[in-house]
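Local shape tokens:
==================
===
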Amino acid sequence: MANEKFFTSHNGVEIPTIGFGTWQIPNEEAYAAVTTALENGYTHIDTALAYQNEENVGKAIRDFNISREEVFITSKLPAEIKGYDATLAAFEETITNLGVDVLDLYLIHAPWPWDEVGKDCTEGNIESWKAMEKLYKDGKIRAIGVSNFSEKDIQALLDSCDIVPMVNQIPFYIGRDQASLLQFCKKHNIVVEAYSPLATGQILNSPEIKEMAAKYSVTPAQLCIRYCLEHGTLPLPKSTNKERIVENSQLAFTISPEDVQKLDAFEDVRSK
């Protein structure tokens, strides 16, 4: 469920509607980028152990004049780590890096290692999920979820574990609406977070996108991010540029159903 300010997970945790992504932001740049985001109203910061920037993400949040309770922090279990004890150890590393006692959201970064995409790691994912269930029940994490998981990957957890994932973070953008997976997640009350909402920037020069953005008096990036919201997904735009960081959160407009349908018909620019 979502309103203008929050998506609400099935356990009642409120997740701020726009997240600030930190993928590909080096540790030495993360402090300034996260500080700029916080200065401009972001209260949802997304990182991962694999990004190697948790230390400065955490430091920026601690140094900023905002209470810990007002900032929603997400991090992720590295994709190659599978298993109960290894998951508990990686989580401890993450909260030590971030300098927090409780994490708001913790995700399995992917169902398989990035250098073995498609490998069947079902048993390892189940063991990792059981470790995350323990951390959740112990009050160390407010919500737990997955990332890059297909329907089959999620179903394996539903069949073997106690807690339905609260979130699935997936690539979602114009040209890649993942309709079947989105419908599956909605059926199970799993919040879908949209990473790479700008298709890593590759869609922004599309003449059709530029033309439609001009119709709404917004930038192509704003149109792309708003598209995610129109589909009930939570976008995670990323930038180190102050002007774009501000722009990416200014989404007080709606796209007509007719124009959403036109955008749905786009081909994936990243598959060309």
